[in-house]
Amino acid sequence: MSEHLVPGYCALCRSRCGTLNEIIDGRLISVHPDEDHPTGGAVCLKGKAAPELIYSEARVLWPLRRTQPKGAEDPGWKRITWDEALAEIADRLTQFKTESGAESVAFGVTTPSGTPIIDSVEWIERFVRHYGSPNTCYSTEVCNWHKDTAHTFTFGCITPAADYSNAELIMLWGNNPAATWLAQASAIGEGRKKGARMLVIDPRHTEFACDADVWLNINPGTDAVLAMGFIRQLLEQGYNDTFVRTWTDAPLLVNEVSGLLLREQDITSDAVTNHYLLWDGMDNTVRPCTDAVAGDEVFYQCASLTGRYSLSLADGKTAVCTPALEVLRQAVAGYTPEHVATVTGVSTEKQQAALALIRGSSRIAYHAWVGIAQSQNATQTERAIAILYALTGAFDTRGSNRVYAKPPFNAVNQLSLLPESQRQKALGLSERPLGPPASGYVTTADLHRAILEHKPYKVRGLVCFGSNMLSAHGNVDTAIAALKQLEFHVHCDHFFTPTSRFADILLPASTLWEHEALKIGFEISERADAHVQLRSQLVTPQGESLADYEIVFRLACKMGMGDNFFHGDTDAGFNHILKPSGLTLEMLRAQPGGITTQVANHEKKYALRDGPDGNPRGFATETGKVEIYSERLLRHGYSPVPQYIEEVPEQDDFPLRLTTMKNALFCHSQHRSLVSLRRKSPDPTAIVSRAVAGNAGIDNKDWIEIITPAGRGRFRARIDDAIHDDVVIAEYGWWQGCPDLNKPELPVNGENGSNYNMLINYAAVDGISGSVPLRAMRCAVRKVADALAWKGERRFIVSDIVQETPDVRSVSFIPVDGALLPDWQAGQAVLLRVFPEDKPEGVCRAYTLSNAPGHGAHFIVSVRLQVQGTMSSFIHQQLQVGDEVALTAPDGSFVIPTRSISPVVMIAGGIGITPFISYLSSLELRLEGPDLWLYYGNRNSQSHAFREQLQAMSQQFPRLKIINVYDNPLSTDVPGEDYQHTGIITAALFDQKLIRNRARFYLCGPGPMISSLEEGLRKRGVFTFDIFKELFAPPVPRITSRKASHKVVFARSGVTVQWTPAAGTLLELGEKHQIRMAGGCRAGQCECCVVKLTEGVVDSLGEQTAPGDGTCLACQCIPASDIVIDA
């Protein structure tokens, strides 16, 4: 067996966490954090699910061509060769460009921030721009555009990396790193350990909100109002005067008539230079801001920041001018604490608490992302927050937002590759000249219009790289109509998606572990951004899948663009990127963990005088300063200072506020087919307030329907007492099925769907960016189904008792009310309560149902008599037909799939047969389906429950094979007839063909048997995620100690300490005593902090539970008794 660890990094999200990848016999088995990597502190569950992604049987593995009309239930995919696929694509793209111009083809690209397309995006953009299309459809208008491009309106750069680990104040505004950026979450943990305070502004009661010094649970979509209110109060109560005067345009004079900034030539026609002007309050005169005074704090200290000044212009007219800061002051004058509280729901007391944190901190690290980017005020919200940050002066200093230097490299996707004449044809550019179309990024709404209405011209073709528009954007029905209308549609993806079903050609994209990838800079810290790494190809690509960049290189050569793509040589392309750094692919391949380069970093780079003219660098804006007042916005018809457009008022039919959230277990709309992740989040969730729940009669896990003017969707309810009464927060991205857990695919439109984007329309969009109100809709909520068939216990009567063996009884129950029983899934259980005479409160125990699922009149449980078993003894010795009992509704996550595409191997120990009897009884075994194997362990024929029933099934149905194993056969038991093997069931019994064919193994029995089989199966090459288990064990008595102190033994470290509530979680306790423990997200989501609990009991502070197997989440747990943990 060949086994080794290979360094790499995960590209499933923006965090790009450093990893160590366990490879055994050429297969990726597991993924672990690489603690030597600058982002390697933790790996989330998505990253750990890598083997499931690679080896998923649902992957697209071959180039495919559609043979049925678009919209057909089955596209009729036909396998073709890569040469056939690329030749057809090249011919059609060339045809469209010749006949209708390159603009007639649009490109859809999934988000580089949250998917592995980051490995290829620069090459995709290079292809698009050399081809000549100005129309690339990301989701940028609802994702990164505001924190990146819109931030340049103020600071001239994208939002720099937040130096959380050295901050005095950490400010998270509409951003939850625990769900989106694990490396940031780890850095926040480091900062908090050093004493940083934390301010969280979010409608959601996130894990960081729970931990914050101040949490502002703001009404969705009102962030601009809060930011403008904070600006007003800072202007009144104090801000960083030196920074604002010297490095922002606050002193520059604004002509009140034209709105333009005043310049030298406005007042002196023959002025040689044309610098901006300010009013010198000391000498009462106007002065130019020449290069000589750039960065001169003494000069700017004389500037007036308030007042109105009349100046004679060169044309003889008089202009009244106001300093830019005064214009801002007037713009926010109405945003009093009381008004802000009314609109945002944030009380004046909470506002003051937040402002005290901001005013009391000089090192402020903040990040604002999609939480503020998905409303009709998105751009001006970003502007307001950026200006608020500018007032603090905390920019590019240690512990603030740092502009880190990267190693030099050659860009290959620069916008200048696209001719200016083509840039001007971008869809939506005339409506949004400063928005995403200016960079060639178009919205889906504009794309749909061009396809369906041919406005401003007809888009004929679409080439998509992983973009699932039907689950990522609103107006779903319009999108479907547009996809049907396309003349030609190419789609590259790992899986079949709702969007790819409309493609003419579907291409198999490799996963990130199946190809090399280059990353220059990892963002989160100075060291991280100096790090360069070539991620190795860890495994052989499945099928004929290729990296997206390989597809682009091959297609470019087919289309005669080989000169621009290094004649198809990807190594040459990557070496071209690296050339300025002095690194090569050969060097990086020799060091797969990456190379940290030596890069000079300075604080306050804007003040550096390192140019040939000796002037400070300043900021990359028109004024060279931080622009509190944006003349650029003004020239294009937008407000130069922040403004807020009032949201749609409350409507009787839609009284609630709707926003959305990312499920941390999944990458946007992907990965819900993966068992390890879906087990932890089986259904789409919507958080509702206690008030909404009370009004609608909703309990936790009930199915609810959210209704908006655009549509409706179904979600499981989760009640949160902390959010505002009128707020609803629903997950997005739900469509994918998970056959192994009996979870069907959900429709992206129509009835019974849970696609959040069905709830969204484009009635109110951001005028600059085109952002849509994903986080600012109005809605109503109604309950559609209980979480379970009934709540609590329901009265039943024993209707029949069958003695299956001397020690196994099957008991039938019918409801007292005579109503039909609900459907359930094979493998689910009920809680049965019986009432012995000496225990009037009853005795309760869980039992798996052993009869076939379906609407019917009775339930059956089968119970083995256990020595000293109170419950089983009562059932065997006292329970009689006609006795009354109580049952809960069927529930449980151990289910056996009724439509598996893989062989199903059932392994039962003794009475562990019950879920499999239920399952087999429910199948129509005469129909085609996967092979079914049952390995059934018993002592001998006397304890062999359901022997005749199972024997009849095996004789009747050829795809069912039963292997009986007796560990103590009777002399009358016949080998080969009554049983096939002696001893116990071990992994060695299973046919190698089952393992080779990726059979699913379902285990039910006592704990030691389960543990032994799991270990044996893994050694034989069975993936952990292909093993499903239900073990029989007595309930663990819960310790509810009220002690204020417990002993905690860190066994591996040899440290024993006393825990008190002040010590916090086990993770925090360990850190205080220098115990090295993985922290990760610190929210219980990534499970990096899982530790073995060898003695004692713990309590969890949150909803997250331990993954099982005697472990606990150190970041969520506190002792409930004296404990011993393996740390």
Description:
The strands form twelve sheets. The chain has a seven-stranded mixed β-sheet, with helices on one face. Strands 25-29-26-28-27-30 form a six-stranded mixed β-barrel. It has a six-stranded antiparallel β-sheet with strand order 34-33-36-31-32-35, covered by helices on one side. The longest helix has 19 residues, at 82-100. Helices cover 24% and strands 22% of the residues. It is an alpha/beta fold and 1127 residues long. It has six domains: 64-148 and 409-590, Rossmann fold (3-Layer(aba) Sandwich); 161-402, Dimethylsulfoxide Reductase, domain 2; 656-783, Barwin-like endoglucanases (Beta Barrel), CATH 2.40.40; 793-888, Translation factors (Elongation Factor Tu (Ef-tu), domain 3, Beta Barrel), CATH 2.40.30; 904-1031, Nucleotide-binding domain of ferredoxin-NADP reductase (FNR) module (Rossmann fold); 1046-1126, Beta-grasp domain (Ubiquitin-like (UB roll), Roll). The chain is built from 34 helices and 49 strands. Residues 1035-1041 have low confidence and may be disordered. It is globular. Belongs to the prokaryotic molybdopterin-containing oxidoreductase family. It holds the Pfam family NAD_binding_1. Residues 1046-1127 form the 2Fe-2S ferredoxin-type domain. Residues 3-58 form the 4Fe-4S Mo/W bis-MGD-type domain. Residues 791-897 form the FAD-binding FR-type domain.
